[in-house]
Sequence to fold (181 residues):
Amino acid sequence: MFQALGMSNTQMLETGRLAMAVEGSWALSWMYKMAAPLGIGPLPKMSTIAASAQGHLHCILSMTEKPDASWEWLRFLATPFYQTQFIKIGLWLPSQTALMTDEGIATWLNDEVHPSNFRQMVTDYVPKYMRPITLVAGWPKASAHIWPAIEAVMNGSAAEDMLPDAVKAGNEIIQKEYLEA
Fold:
C-alpha cells in the first residue's frame, strides 16, 4: 500500500504525512534513526487488551549427522548473550523473563535505539497482554489460499465474494494436515 504512495511508512512518519504506524517490534531497528521523535504504544483496545507475539523457531532435524554439535548450537541460540545482540539493536523484544528484570534490561537497553517508554512496554505490557501465536499444522499451505483473498478484500473486493471459498479451502487443508500430524 505504501509503495503506491512512493514512500515507506517510516518516510511518511518522518515527513509528517503519517501520525502513527502499526508495525512489529523489529521496525525499531531502522525507525530509531528517524529525526522525528519516536514513541511506542499498544494497539487500541478492542474487547480484550492483547497483542500477538511471535518469534522464529530453532530446531534440530531428527536425522542430523551431528546431534551433539546441533544441540550445542541450539543451546547457544537460547543464551541471553545471543538474544541481547538483537534486542540491543531494536530488532527483537526479550523472550526470556530474565531479560525483562532490571538486571536483564541493563544488559541491552540502548537509549539511542529504544524510546523512553520501551522499558515500561517490556516490563508491564508484554508480560500482561502479549499472547503467543501458534501456527497450526497445514498453515503454510492454507495461507496460500487465505492471504490472496484477504489482499483482494484490502484492494476493494467484497469480503463476502472473496473469503468464503478461501476459508473453506484453508480449513480443509488444516483439518487434513492436523489429522495426518
About this structure: The beta strands are 51-53, 130-132. Residues 88 and 111 are 10 Å apart (CA to CA). The longest helix spans residues 159-180. The chain has two domains: 1-132, 139-180.
